[in-house]
Description:
The chain is mostly helical. Helices cover about 50% and strands about 10% of the residues. It is built from eight helices and five strands.
Amino acid sequence: MADYIVESKSRKDLRNLAETxxxxxxxxxEPRVPIVELLDVFTQVFEDFNYEIVPDYALPSGVHAxxxxxxxxxxxxxxxxxxxCDGEGRDRMTIAHEIGHYFTLSFCxxxxxxxxxxxxxxxxxxxxxxxxxxxxxxxxPHHLTNDMSPDExxxxxxxxxxxxxxxxxxxx
Length: 172
Ligand SMILES: [Zn+2]
């Protein structure tokens, strides 16, 4: 059950947001996002953006990283950060996911409310869905990968095969 409900955003909205951010970063023609470097870029550009690398034992075993969605503070496991530095697709996507929380919640000010009544939340209103969707669109830019196969997307964008085929199946 989702703990929070956010303002509805569609895949198209989040694709637009990802494209706007890429243009802002002058990465619109770059298939492979330098996601680890961007953590430091965002720290410099956005006053309230901050992240922290912690030893693996500091987070539960099933958790790779997390974002406090009220403050935007990002915590990343050391092994995930190192994997992302080594170009590991899954770890790169984990970081993009946490960045997705920042841009869909803090930066854009999408309103956030506590799901007190524990109603079933539609995907478009779920901050987890939004972060996941944003991360996929940001790491696999629609306009550069439209005619690529999943294997080509893996190669060009530095994402896992799972992520590449997910984006491939959600191109339209
Ligand atoms: Zn998340």
